[in-house]
Amino acid sequence: MSKSINDLVDQLRQESNLPDAALLELLAAPGDCQYLHDSANSVRQEIYGSAVYLRGLIEFTNYCHNDCYYCGLRRSNRQAQRYRLSSEDILACCATGHRLGYRTFVLQGGEDGYFSDERLVPLVAKIKELYPECAVTLSVGERSKDSYRKLREAGADRYLLRHETANRSHYEKLHPQEMSWENRRRCLFELKELGYQVGAGLMVGSPFQEDRHLLEDLRFMQELKPDMIGIGPYLRQADTPFAGYPNGSMSKTLRLLSIVRLMFPYILLPATTALGTLNPRGRELGLRAGANVLMPNLSPLSVRRYYNIYDNKICTGEEAAECLTCLSARIKHAGFTVSKGRGDVKRTH
Ligand code: 5AD
Ligand code: FES
Fold first, then answer.
1. Which parts of the chain fold into alpha helices (H)?
2. Structure confidence by residue, pLDDT tens digits, 287-340
3. What residues flank ligand 1, with Cβ below 6 Å?
């Protein structure tokens, strides 16, 4: 007889790994899997204690030259109201964030040619000059190795670039032909080589996704050894070609978060805004399933509602300070403590 699900969880916890068939069984387990979540939660507790790290997120441009079929920022979306923040605006967001206590800033945007190295490098350098004790994280998509190097030399510490899916043919179903699975992987390995703390990740329940793809995602991440893994449910966006596909499932997303915590005990794992959008208690459930990072929005209120990657995004009507108060209360209520420090990964490799 095959092992029970709880035995598989125990084995995964002990070995940080399982054979393919066992991982597939865990991925496919129906409904909630409390034992899995509790195990992930306790591994997170062993390594990071009850601290939840906060990152100040600045969504500084929603222009994007890519055309991903799932994303509301895609260039073919004529409904999107486009904006980009000036360097002064971005620095003002950092100042607000710093005053609120954040020691990590995440600069996230579409792939916007306006933010060439000539513009981005001095901006990163300026933020590091003003706030040398803070970590700067970039999330601005695929660029050349030379560009990644210049940004790293300017002081960028971390880089978030979800791999989206490790399976080539699935990747090709989510993206137009001009985007390449190889290039995505090249970027991630180069970022690591350059000494960034790297974040990979994926959407759960993206169109055409099967459990065997998620298994490949886990295997790919074992090879990449990222420091952060961003996982949220796929959510529909009405103005994209995928508008007809259903949202990803809550229980599946939570299950993957827990599996990831057990396979990568040291990982920095956000409870994403997408999870909070799918379910009003989604982020808290994410924390209890093993996540340990939250990324409250620091973008100016005037532009918040235009960063419409998916529909019904939460936190678009709150000032930065309100978001912080709300999230801090939620974190404490869920039994965790707020940490606004740099929150580096507790591992070197
Ligand atoms: N639903 C959920 N997540 C999405 N992303 C893009 N579009 C969607 C969507 N419709 C995620 C992608 C991307 C990150 C910035 O947001 O994984 O890497
Ligand atoms: Fe912007 Fe995909 S639409 S990266």
1. 5-15, 20-28, 34-48, 87-100, 117-130, 145-153, 168-174, 181-193, 211-224, 250-263, 273-278, 282-288, 301-304, 320-333
2. 999 999 999 999 999 999 999 999 999 999 989 999 999 999 999 999 999 998
3. 70-71, 162, 164, 203, 232, 234-235, 237, 274, 309-310
Distance (Å) from CA 80 to ligand 1 centroid: 15
pLDDT digits (tens, 9 = 90+) for 155-177: 999 999 999 999 999 999 999 99
Mean pLDDT, the chain, whole residue set: 96
Range 6-43 burial, b when 16+ CB lie within 10 A, else e: eebbebbbeeeebeeebbbbbbebeeebeebbebbbeb
Question: Helices 5-15 and 250-263 meet at what angle, rounded to 10?
Answer: 40
Is the pLDDT at 59 greater than 50? The verdict is: yes
CA of 14 to the centre of ligand 1 (A): 32
Minimum-distance ligand 2 atom for the alpha carbon of 110: 1
